[in-house]
Amino acid sequence: MSDANPSSPADSSCLTDGQTLWVDGRALEVRISARRSRLGLTVERDGALILRVPPTCPPERAEAFVRSGSRWIDDKLRLREERQPLHPTRKLSDGEIHRYLGRDYRLLYVDEPGAPVRLVAGRLRMDQATAADPVRGRRALADWYTRSGLRWARGRLQPWAARMDVDEPRIEVRDVGRRWGTHRPGRIALHWATFQLPFHLIDYVIAHELAHVRVSGHGPDYWRLLRRAMPECARWKTELDEMGRRVWMGDVAER
Protein backbone atom coordinates (compact mmCIF):
# COMPACT_ATOMS: atom_id res chain seq x y z
CA MET A 1 0.00 0.00 0.00
CA SER A 2 1.35 3.45 -0.90
CA ASP A 3 0.17 7.05 -1.14
CA ALA A 4 0.36 9.40 -4.08
CA ASN A 5 1.30 12.65 -2.37
CA PRO A 6 4.64 14.34 -3.02
CA SER A 7 7.16 14.56 -0.23
CA SER A 8 6.37 17.12 2.44
CA PRO A 9 8.77 20.00 3.07
CA ALA A 10 11.12 19.84 6.00
CA ASP A 11 9.43 20.06 9.36
CA SER A 12 10.80 20.70 12.80
CA SER A 13 9.32 17.41 13.92
CA CYS A 14 9.97 14.58 11.48
CA LEU A 15 9.99 10.82 11.74
CA THR A 16 13.33 9.10 12.31
CA ASP A 17 14.57 5.81 10.94
CA GLY A 18 13.85 2.88 13.24
CA GLN A 19 11.42 4.65 15.52
CA THR A 20 8.09 3.11 16.50
CA LEU A 21 5.03 5.09 15.48
CA TRP A 22 1.79 4.32 17.31
CA VAL A 23 -1.45 4.97 15.43
CA ASP A 24 -4.78 3.99 17.00
CA GLY A 25 -3.17 1.25 19.05
CA ARG A 26 -1.06 -0.11 16.20
CA ALA A 27 2.73 -0.12 16.36
CA LEU A 28 4.55 0.60 13.09
CA GLU A 29 8.30 0.44 12.51
CA VAL A 30 9.46 3.48 10.53
CA ARG A 31 12.03 3.03 7.78
CA ILE A 32 13.31 6.08 5.93
CA SER A 33 14.54 5.93 2.33
CA ALA A 34 16.12 8.85 0.49
CA ARG A 35 14.77 7.42 -2.77
CA ARG A 36 11.13 7.58 -1.71
CA SER A 37 8.72 10.43 -2.36
CA ARG A 38 5.62 8.55 -1.23
CA LEU A 39 4.69 6.61 1.88
CA GLY A 40 4.35 2.83 1.77
CA LEU A 41 2.99 0.30 4.20
CA THR A 42 3.59 -3.46 4.35
CA VAL A 43 2.40 -6.23 6.63
CA GLU A 44 5.27 -8.68 7.16
CA ARG A 45 4.90 -12.45 7.48
CA ASP A 46 5.24 -12.18 11.25
CA GLY A 47 2.46 -9.57 11.42
CA ALA A 48 4.80 -6.60 11.90
CA LEU A 49 3.72 -3.33 10.27
CA ILE A 50 6.50 -1.53 8.36
CA LEU A 51 5.95 2.10 7.38
CA ARG A 52 8.35 3.32 4.69
CA VAL A 53 8.64 7.09 4.36
CA PRO A 54 10.73 9.71 2.58
CA PRO A 55 13.07 11.95 4.54
CA THR A 56 11.55 14.88 6.43
CA CYS A 57 8.17 13.19 6.77
CA PRO A 58 6.12 14.74 9.59
CA PRO A 59 4.24 12.39 11.95
CA GLU A 60 0.91 13.99 11.03
CA ARG A 61 1.23 12.94 7.40
CA ALA A 62 2.20 9.41 8.39
CA GLU A 63 -0.67 9.06 10.85
CA ALA A 64 -3.20 10.25 8.27
CA PHE A 65 -1.80 7.78 5.74
CA VAL A 66 -2.03 4.86 8.18
CA ARG A 67 -5.60 5.76 9.15
CA SER A 68 -6.61 5.95 5.48
CA GLY A 69 -5.38 2.38 5.08
CA SER A 70 -7.01 0.97 8.20
CA ARG A 71 -9.34 -1.32 6.25
CA TRP A 72 -6.45 -2.54 4.06
CA ILE A 73 -4.44 -3.37 7.19
CA ASP A 74 -7.39 -5.25 8.70
CA ASP A 75 -7.80 -7.29 5.50
CA LYS A 76 -4.09 -8.18 5.39
CA LEU A 77 -4.02 -9.22 9.05
CA ARG A 78 -7.18 -11.29 8.61
CA LEU A 79 -5.62 -13.05 5.61
CA ARG A 80 -2.50 -13.71 7.67
CA GLU A 81 -4.59 -15.38 10.37
CA GLU A 82 -6.22 -17.61 7.75
CA ARG A 83 -2.76 -18.63 6.54
CA GLN A 84 -1.25 -19.40 9.91
CA PRO A 85 1.81 -21.64 9.52
CA LEU A 86 1.58 -25.37 10.00
CA HIS A 87 5.31 -25.81 10.53
CA PRO A 88 6.09 -29.34 11.73
CA THR A 89 7.97 -30.25 14.87
CA ARG A 90 10.81 -32.68 14.21
CA LYS A 91 12.12 -35.44 16.47
CA LEU A 92 15.41 -35.78 14.57
CA SER A 93 14.99 -39.54 14.78
CA ASP A 94 16.81 -42.11 12.65
CA GLY A 95 14.97 -42.48 9.32
CA GLU A 96 13.09 -39.17 9.58
CA ILE A 97 12.54 -37.35 6.27
CA HIS A 98 14.15 -33.95 5.71
CA ARG A 99 14.08 -31.87 2.54
CA TYR A 100 16.85 -30.09 0.71
CA LEU A 101 16.25 -28.16 -2.53
CA GLY A 102 12.82 -29.78 -2.79
CA ARG A 103 14.02 -33.40 -2.53
CA ASP A 104 13.44 -35.81 0.35
CA TYR A 105 16.38 -37.27 2.26
CA ARG A 106 16.26 -39.72 5.15
CA LEU A 107 18.21 -38.94 8.29
CA LEU A 108 20.74 -41.66 9.10
CA TYR A 109 22.57 -41.94 12.40
CA VAL A 110 26.23 -42.81 11.90
CA ASP A 111 29.20 -43.50 14.14
CA GLU A 112 32.07 -42.35 11.99
CA PRO A 113 34.47 -39.39 11.80
CA GLY A 114 33.46 -36.29 9.93
CA ALA A 115 31.17 -33.27 10.21
CA PRO A 116 28.17 -33.57 12.56
CA VAL A 117 25.81 -33.50 9.54
CA ARG A 118 26.60 -34.27 5.91
CA LEU A 119 24.80 -35.42 2.78
CA VAL A 120 26.36 -38.62 1.44
CA ALA A 121 24.93 -41.04 -1.14
CA GLY A 122 21.40 -39.71 -0.82
CA ARG A 123 21.28 -39.89 2.99
CA LEU A 124 21.51 -37.04 5.44
CA ARG A 125 24.02 -38.43 7.92
CA MET A 126 24.08 -37.22 11.51
CA ASP A 127 26.70 -38.20 14.05
CA GLN A 128 25.14 -40.27 16.84
CA ALA A 129 26.72 -38.15 19.56
CA THR A 130 25.10 -35.08 18.00
CA ALA A 131 21.76 -36.83 17.55
CA ALA A 132 21.66 -37.83 21.23
CA ASP A 133 20.91 -34.21 22.18
CA PRO A 134 17.93 -32.69 20.26
CA VAL A 135 19.14 -29.14 20.86
CA ARG A 136 22.61 -29.97 19.58
CA GLY A 137 21.15 -31.92 16.68
CA ARG A 138 18.87 -29.07 15.69
CA ARG A 139 21.80 -26.64 15.74
CA ALA A 140 23.97 -28.96 13.66
CA LEU A 141 21.23 -29.48 11.08
CA ALA A 142 20.52 -25.75 10.83
CA ASP A 143 24.25 -25.13 10.41
CA TRP A 144 24.35 -27.69 7.59
CA TYR A 145 21.44 -25.98 5.79
CA THR A 146 23.22 -22.65 6.30
CA ARG A 147 26.51 -23.78 4.75
CA SER A 148 24.95 -25.82 1.94
CA GLY A 149 22.36 -23.15 1.16
CA LEU A 150 24.95 -20.40 1.00
CA ARG A 151 27.06 -22.35 -1.50
CA TRP A 152 23.98 -22.94 -3.67
CA ALA A 153 22.61 -19.39 -3.43
CA ARG A 154 25.89 -17.74 -4.42
CA GLY A 155 25.53 -19.30 -7.84
CA ARG A 156 21.98 -17.97 -8.27
CA LEU A 157 22.51 -14.38 -7.16
CA GLN A 158 24.30 -13.00 -10.23
CA PRO A 159 21.77 -14.13 -12.89
CA TRP A 160 18.83 -12.50 -11.08
CA ALA A 161 20.80 -9.35 -10.26
CA ALA A 162 21.69 -9.06 -13.96
CA ARG A 163 18.04 -9.46 -15.01
CA MET A 164 17.05 -6.57 -12.74
CA ASP A 165 20.13 -4.50 -13.55
CA VAL A 166 21.03 -4.09 -9.88
CA ASP A 167 24.34 -4.33 -8.09
CA GLU A 168 24.98 -7.78 -6.66
CA PRO A 169 24.81 -7.46 -2.85
CA ARG A 170 26.56 -9.57 -0.26
CA ILE A 171 24.47 -12.63 0.65
CA GLU A 172 24.10 -14.30 4.03
CA VAL A 173 22.22 -17.37 5.20
CA ARG A 174 21.03 -17.39 8.80
CA ASP A 175 17.95 -17.46 10.98
CA VAL A 176 15.85 -14.40 10.09
CA GLY A 177 12.85 -15.28 12.25
CA ARG A 178 9.62 -16.02 10.40
CA ARG A 179 10.67 -14.37 7.17
CA TRP A 180 12.22 -16.05 4.13
CA GLY A 181 14.62 -13.23 3.56
CA THR A 182 15.53 -9.63 4.36
CA HIS A 183 17.23 -6.79 2.53
CA ARG A 184 19.46 -4.08 3.89
CA PRO A 185 21.64 -1.75 1.81
CA GLY A 186 24.48 -3.79 0.35
CA ARG A 187 23.32 -7.20 1.58
CA ILE A 188 20.48 -9.69 1.65
CA ALA A 189 19.92 -12.50 4.13
CA LEU A 190 18.02 -15.74 3.48
CA HIS A 191 16.59 -18.01 6.15
CA TRP A 192 18.37 -21.38 6.30
CA ALA A 193 14.93 -23.07 6.19
CA THR A 194 14.40 -21.61 2.69
CA PHE A 195 16.66 -24.32 1.26
CA GLN A 196 14.08 -27.01 1.95
CA LEU A 197 11.99 -25.47 -0.86
CA PRO A 198 12.19 -26.45 -4.56
CA PHE A 199 14.66 -24.58 -6.79
CA HIS A 200 12.12 -22.23 -8.34
CA LEU A 201 10.75 -21.06 -4.99
CA ILE A 202 14.25 -20.36 -3.65
CA ASP A 203 14.87 -18.38 -6.84
CA TYR A 204 11.67 -16.46 -6.10
CA VAL A 205 12.88 -15.58 -2.59
CA ILE A 206 16.26 -14.46 -3.97
CA ALA A 207 14.65 -12.36 -6.72
CA HIS A 208 12.13 -10.95 -4.25
CA GLU A 209 14.90 -9.59 -2.04
CA LEU A 210 17.03 -8.41 -4.97
CA ALA A 211 14.15 -6.29 -6.25
CA HIS A 212 14.44 -4.30 -3.02
CA VAL A 213 17.93 -3.19 -4.09
CA ARG A 214 16.14 -0.92 -6.56
CA VAL A 215 12.69 -0.44 -4.99
CA SER A 216 11.86 -0.40 -1.30
CA GLY A 217 8.42 -1.55 -0.21
CA HIS A 218 5.97 -3.61 -2.25
CA GLY A 219 4.23 -0.98 -4.34
CA PRO A 220 3.40 -1.11 -8.08
CA ASP A 221 6.95 -0.20 -9.13
CA TYR A 222 8.31 -3.09 -7.10
CA TRP A 223 6.00 -5.68 -8.67
CA ARG A 224 6.62 -4.33 -12.17
CA LEU A 225 10.36 -4.81 -11.69
CA LEU A 226 9.94 -8.31 -10.31
CA ARG A 227 7.51 -9.34 -13.08
CA ARG A 228 9.93 -8.17 -15.77
CA ALA A 229 12.67 -10.37 -14.34
CA MET A 230 10.37 -13.23 -13.29
CA PRO A 231 7.05 -13.35 -15.19
CA GLU A 232 5.87 -16.28 -13.03
CA CYS A 233 6.34 -14.35 -9.76
CA ALA A 234 2.62 -14.15 -8.88
CA ARG A 235 2.16 -17.90 -9.31
CA TRP A 236 5.31 -18.69 -7.36
CA LYS A 237 4.33 -16.28 -4.58
CA THR A 238 1.02 -18.15 -4.18
CA GLU A 239 2.86 -21.48 -4.18
CA LEU A 240 5.32 -20.21 -1.57
CA ASP A 241 2.51 -18.94 0.65
CA GLU A 242 0.98 -22.42 0.70
CA MET A 243 4.05 -24.66 0.70
CA GLY A 244 5.94 -22.39 3.06
CA ARG A 245 3.41 -23.03 5.82
CA ARG A 246 4.66 -26.63 6.02
CA VAL A 247 8.41 -26.02 6.01
CA TRP A 248 10.37 -27.08 9.09
CA MET A 249 11.58 -23.91 10.82
CA GLY A 250 13.65 -25.62 13.49
CA ASP A 251 11.10 -26.71 16.12
CA VAL A 252 12.27 -29.92 17.85
CA ALA A 253 10.22 -32.21 20.09
CA GLU A 254 11.52 -33.35 23.43
CA ARG A 255 12.29 -37.04 23.69
Quick rundown:
By secondary structure, the protein is α/β, with parallel strands linked by helices. Helix content is 37%, strand content 22%. 27% of the residues are buried.
Question: How would you describe what is shown here?
Answer:
Strands 1-2-4-3 form a 4-stranded mixed sheet, covered by helices on one side. The model is unreliable at 7-11 (pLDDT under 50). It has helices at residues 59-68, 70-82, 128-131, 134-164, 199-214, 220-229, 233-243, and strands spanning 20-23, 26-32, 40-43, 49-53, 97-100, 103-110, 117-120, 123-127, 170-174, 181-184, 187-191. It is built from 7 helices and 11 strands. The protein has 255 residues and is of the alpha/beta class. Helix 4 crosses helix 5 (199-214) and helix 5 (199-214) crosses helix 6.
Instruction: Classify the beta-strand content into a percent band.
Output: 15-25%
Span from first to last CA?
46 Å
Find the count of extended strands (DSSP E, 2+ residues).
11
Q: Name the poorly predicted regions.
A: 7-11
Mean pLDDT equals: 90
The main β sheet shows up as: 4 strands, mixed
* Helix residue percentage: 25-40%
The sequence of SSEs as H and E is EEEEHHEEEEHHEEEHHH
